[in-house]
Design goal:
Blueprint (H helix, E strand, L loop, with lengths): L5 E6 L5 H9 L5 E5 L6 H13 L5 E4 L4 H8 L5 E5 L1 H11 L9 H20 L4 E7 L10 H20 L2 E6 L2 E6 L6
Helix pairs in contact: 3-5, 4-6, 5-6
Keywords: ATP-binding, Cobalamin biosynthesis, GTP-binding, Kinase, Nucleotide-binding, Nucleotidyltransferase, Transferase
EC number: 2.7.1.156, 2.7.7.62
Pathway: Cofactor biosynthesis; adenosylcobalamin biosynthesis; adenosylcobalamin from cob(II)yrinate a,c-diamide: step 5/7; Cofactor biosynthesis; adenosylcobalamin biosynthesis; adenosylcobalamin from cob(II)yrinate a,c-diamide: step 6/7
């Protein structure tokens, strides 16, 4: 089976990464949008609504906060392009509300669990025939966070970005609304 193209779009907060990814996705015919955000407070509800308003009505939206690999495999049946927004929110969801193991009880087990979920997701991406565009945040370019949970989140986000970049055919970094292609083919080191 030949797999679809995997494109990773990274950027900081309000960098324009989602808008760029949406422009890439709009080149497809049957477009699916996989949303991972949780509407936990009023401000997040507004952000989600802005994303909804930007999307064309013809796009098929699925909201899934944890089981994104399974969701992509289901969406493949009726989409030739799937836009996942956002990988970083998915990591946050796994870190704070995943069922196994308890965050407070065992940090090492939580980290191992999430890394395993990331590897399973990467495998799922490689098994579908449709093109996948994955949006994620670059959060490692700032100061070292002052608490353990924030450091774990930052570290897991960086590991996740690296794992997905390994399997991606193209990787873009968006800064100030400008996409910079940082990978367009497999780099042999």
């Amino acid at each position: 089976m030949e797999r679809g193209k995997i494109i990773l779009v990274l950027g900081g907060t309000r960098s324009g990464k989602s808008s760029f990814a949406e422009r890439l996705a709009s080149k497809g015919q049957r477009i699916g949008y996989l949303a991972t955000a949780l509407p936990g407070d009023g401000e997040m509800i507004k952000r989600i609504e802005l994303h909804r308003q930007r999307r064309p009505i013809a796009w098929i939206t699925k909201e899934e906060t944890l089981e994104i690999g399974k969701a992509i495999q289901e969406m493949e049946q009726y989409c030739d392009v799937i836009l996942l927004d956002c990988l970083t929110l998915w990591i946050s969801n796994l870190l704070t509300m995943g069922s196994e193991p308890d965050v407070e009880a065992n940090w090492v087990a939580r980290e191992k669990y999430i890394i395993e979920q990331v590897k399973q997701f990467a495998q799922s991406c490689q098994e579908v025939k449709c093109n996948i565009i994955i949006v994620g945040s670059e959060v490692g370019m700032s100061i070292v966070p002052g608490n353990r949970l924030a450091r774990l989140f930052r570290d897991l986000n960086g590991i996740t970005n690296q794992e997905i970049a390994k399997i991606a055919d193209e990787v873009y970094l968006v800064t100030a609304g400008i996409p910079i292609e940082i990978k367009s083919q497999e780099v042999k080191i």
